[in-house]
Amino acid sequence: MIRRYKELNEGGPAPIVAMFEKKEEKSYLSLAPVNIMSVHLNKDKLKLKTGQTEKLQASLLPHNATDKTVTWHIIDPTIADITVQGDLAWIKGKRPGRTVVIATAGAFRDLCVVTVHDYLITNK
User: Which of 1, 48, 58, 100 could pair covalently with 93 via S-S, beta carbons 3.0-4.6 A apart?
Assistant: First the structure.
């Protein structure tokens, strides 16, 4: 930017003084998204009695993945219920049978085979 300054005591033309305003240049570092490389459940088989609840946990690699969304799915919801909270799922046996729980993250998935047995009470 060029500004003109007039000297107050002299009657001549004002000298031209060049002044430069330094503007801060912000450099932005754009990080590429970190994709999920694998998903792993803490159990691959789960045996439950009717009414019993167990926890499954999904672990994602790498730990610094950009999108850590885990989608849970149960093949036969009449055998067991699933309650989901992020990377955790609680599986509750409903009736005897076998079903599969699938955890999906990105393009990867892992599964756990759930077997539910009757709850037996024995008299002694």
Answer: 48
Q: Which residues contact 10 (CB under 8 A, 6 or more apart)?
A: none
**Residue among 10, 94, 27, 91 at smallest CA distance from 54:** 91
Domain boundaries, the chain: 38-117
Class of the 38-117 domain? mainly beta
Are the C-beta atoms of 76 and 93 separated by less than 8 Å?
Answer: no
Closest alpha carbon to 56 in 69, 41, 73? 41
pTM of the predicted structure, to 2 decimals = 0.70
